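This section describes the prediction task in plain terms. A model, or a person checking by hand, is given the sequence of a single protein chain and must write out its three-dimensional structure as a string of tokens. No templates, partner chains or ligands are provided. The sample shown here is typical of the held-out split.
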Amino acid sequence: MGKLRESSINFLQRCDSRLENVEATNQMMLEKYEDWSKVLIEPSSNNLARIYALEARFQEEEKLRANDL
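The expected answer:
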């Protein structure tokens, strides 16, 4: 019984260690994704919003000019 208990304890300790490593890796990857998202995704979304706003303003001005003629 003693060897079985020791084997079980060792196995569970190795599983806990591996799980901690996976959690640490997962956290690191999430942080890298957040950094990547801030650098690449958000600026492009902001740029698209700016382009849309400019296009909308341009179309409004064209309509106003067409009505003035």
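For orientation: DSSP finds one helix and no strands in the chain.
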